[in-house]
Design goal:
about 110 residues; mainly beta; single chain
């Protein structure tokens, strides 16, 4: 199977706790970060803001041990199942998805 990278050579990676099933974060991978992730067994991403490879937890110690990587049916999104060693969010929260949109009402149009 060949991963379909976007025009910038990136693919979104949804990171999920393998035990709780909580979505921890969304990041980006390029071919090199995916290769490093597979070799190391720990999550490695591409930082779009810094324009460099980013080994999650390299400085904080909050590494993410990769258990499995799945690819969606179009091969253009990855699901990275991990055992987190600490918080995923730079704010110190366990997951980056700790806030709700205030006053939002979901409406499905037909």
């Amino acid at each position: 199977m060949e991963i379909k990278y976007d025009a910038n050579g990136l693919v979104p990676a949804i990171v999920q706790d393998v035990f709780t099933k909580d979505v921890l974060m969304v990041a980006w991978m390029n071919a090199e970060s995916l290769r490093l992730t597979l070799e190391m067994g720990e999550a490695v991403f591409w930082s779009r803001s810094r324009q460099e490879i980013w080994h999650k937890g390299a400085t904080s110690g909050n590494v993410q041990k990769v258990v499995e990587i799945k690819v969606d049916c179009d091969a253009d999104t990855l699901l990275v199942l991990v055992e987190p060693a600490g918080p995923a969010c730079h704010t110190g929260e366990r997951t980056c998805f700790f806030r709700s949109v205030e006053g939002s009402k979901l409406k499905v149009e037909s």
